[in-house]
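Today's session is about reading a structure prediction critically. Students often jump straight to the picture, but the first step is always the sequence itself: look for stretches that repeat, for charged clusters, for runs of hydrophobic residues. Only then move on to the predicted structure, which in these notes is written as discrete structure tokens rather than atom positions. Here is the chain we will use throughout the hour.
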Amino acid sequence: MNVFVTGGGGFIGSHLVEDQLHRGRKVRSFDVQHPFQQQWRDHPHLQLIHGDIRDAALLRQALDGVDLVFHLASAHLSLTTSEEDYWAINVKATEDFVRLCQLAGVKRFIHCSSVGIYGTIAQPPANEESPCYPELVYEKTKLAGEQAVSQCYRDTGLPISIVRPVWVYGPHCPRTAKLFRAVRKGNFIMVGNGQTWRHCVYVADLVAGLNLCAEHDAAIGQTFIIGDHVAVTVRQLVEEIASIMQVPPPRIRVPFSVMVPISKIVEVLFTLRGKEPPLSSRSLRFFTSNSSCDITKAKTLLNFTPQVTLKDGLQRTYAYLRQAGQL
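Below is the predicted structure for this chain, in token form.
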């Protein structure tokens, strides 16, 4: 089987590429860069293609003979990326790409979206039918990208599935590494009381869910939330991280009323300098936005069962970060 992975050089994509190689499939990994795949560079079944998802000519050529596509490439949570680029990459390029896949004779198309499309979940847990109220440009464009993929399915019959991951963590994730470092150094700031819900999934379980979508006919034309069995509070999450690293749990706590204006000022100052701010209104969503979802549909139609507990996943992540010298 010939597999094409867009965003194959990223956090999730690099794990997915490795998984597909272990399954004995021939993989073409498409991304602007491939920082995590040096060890696989000489693998006989791996082809690294460097390119922009907006390059239709390159994609048309690269799709020749492809059976299965995993579309992970997107503009993702960067404040230095313009709003125009978010719409160009997450919506227009996605729409053009899925149409190219249909014309190329691709047999299955798996689109990776995000539970961020729900915005603030008023009545958790959310399921696949819950209303979407996206607030950030990333969330709005991911929802529009979903709609473009679904429209292609209705228009052409291309067998598609849409996956909405919850908060994904694990090796290669810069956000996970940043969280571990902050807790280890004792400078993690708890905004609010830490009782908002954070639904997590270890990257290996997400990869398993993506693959189940590619293998089950029941997944065609369907959307699935992929996450752990249950959500935890932000406080529970950071205290578990502290316990694993054998450091004191975070003690610094700041009210929302203080942190919100500070984050806006920092965001403006850093954005004007063309740099990613260490604190922003977006990053505050980690503390303010309930993220609790229902994975019953994935369990029922895909027989999906998370295999990695939160504690085990965090321990694996800590071991990787220590070995990689990222703490």
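Discussion point for the tutorial: The two ends are 39 Å apart (CA to CA).
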